Structures are given as C-alpha cells and as structure tokens.
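Hi U.,

Before I forget, here's the chain from the pilot set. I'm dumping it here mostly so it's searchable later in email.
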Amino acid sequence: MTQRPSWQEPPTLAGQSAKGLTLGGVLLMVLVPLWIVVLTSLSTKGAINRAGGLVIWPDGITFEAYEEMLTDSTVRTALLVSFGITIVGTAISMVVSILCAYGLSRSDSFGHRFILVLLIITMFVSGGLIPTFLVVTGLGGYGQWWALILPGAVSVFNILILRSFYSSTAAELIDAARIDGGSEWRILWSIVLPTSRAVTAVISLFYAVGYWNSFFNVMLYMPTESEKWPLQYVLLTYVNRGVGMPGSVNAGFGMEHAQTAPLSLQMAVVVLTLVPLVIVYPFVQKHFRTGVLTGAIKG
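Structure:
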C-alpha cells in the first residue's frame, strides 16, 4: 500500500462518501440504459406491452428478436458490409496516416513544414458538404462502396498524434539503423512501428469506431440501394424511422399482427451494433494512456 504524502490531508468520511456516490451515479448512468436496451431486446411482446414500452425488470425472456434479426437477409448483409467497410477502411486509413505522419516527423524530409501547415489548415477550413458531394459523384462514387471509405479516410488529428510519437523516437536508434544501411522503409517497419504499438492500437480503434458508426455518407451516396447499406444505416432506417425489414415476418414496425415485438427488434439491432465495440475495446483500453496522453505531452 502506497503511503500518502505528508502534505496531503487524510481522507474524511464525507469526502470518501461523496466520491463513492459520484462514481456510483456515473456508473448507474452508463449501466441502466444499457440494461434497459438489452432487457427489452430479450423481452416478449406481452412483457413490452405490460411495461408500456421499454422493460426495466425481467418479465418473460425470449431470443425471438435475435433469431429473427439474424435470419433476416437484410441484417446479415448489412453486418457483412459494416465489417468489410470497417476492416478495409481502417487498413487504408492507417497506411496513409502512418506514411504521412512518418514523413512529417523527419525534419530533413522535403517540404514537411509546408505540408504540415496545409494539413492543419484543413482542420479549420474545409470545402463543405456540397463540393465534397460534387467531387465524389463526379468521380463516379455515387452508389459505390468506396464512397463510404475514401472521402473520410484520413484524419489530420490522428496524423498529428502519430507524428508526435514518431518525432519522439530515439534518434540514436534511427542513426544506428542508417549506419547499418537501413532504408527509410526499413527504419519505419523495424524501429518506429514496433516502438509505437500503443499509439498505433489507439488510432486504429479511432478509425475503426468511426467507420463502424458511420451512416451519413450512405445517405449521400447510396440512399436507395438497401443491399449495400451498412448496419448503422439499417439501424437508422428500422429504428428511428420505424420502417420494417424487407422480407421479414415483422415487416412494418408497429403492426399489431407482428410475431415479434417491434421494440424488441429495434433494441436487438442496437445491441448488435454495440457488441463488436464491447469485445474489441478491452484489448485496446490498456494502450489509451500511453497511446494518447504521452503523445500529447511529448508534442
């Protein structure tokens, strides 16, 4: 047990109680909505009717909503599309961001200051939505999957974080590699990346979460092609707008003859979108302090 500094006052009962109540309140604010969503997705139509909507206490558990959702071709296709966009988009974003950040981190690279200033300007000044739409559609992106990836493939903020880490890589290691005849590619692959695993993991998570949760580009570039929709846009359409899943026995949320409670299906879709992030986050969480805060301090 670590000893408290001599200048620090001993904790009081009121202070400890206030901390405990505050942390408990924050924890409840996170867990209670999650509990309600999961429980509602597992509730029968009768339980939801008796509760008048969202279910707070178990009253008849069933997996019918998940069975119907996972057997529905629209949801299965949307899930595959989301995974594909997330994996391919994250890979493209990381490759471009790593190469750009490494080039900007080398003080002897050609024009690195000018390029850095241009990138920073784009953080505050952008062409706007209409010019972006015109460019993407002019390049034939309307109705194409690449339009969901490339327009937002690079984040200048993430590049700056990576550059900060790469700039702090020990110069002695890089000089030794150059003396041994190592090329810039070799230095990046064998020295810089292995010493920056924490920030690489964190930035990869940032990009992956962004692609997984994105739906706005779908509204712009493929609003009518439901077979190409990712899961998040399915969630928007079937939950927010109350539209039924095409081909589903529950087609038309809110219909009285639906076999499964519409609200249960809606909450099941919400849970499905959360599961991948809940699974991945614990493996990356340990890198957050090292991956982001250290980079911000070293600048």
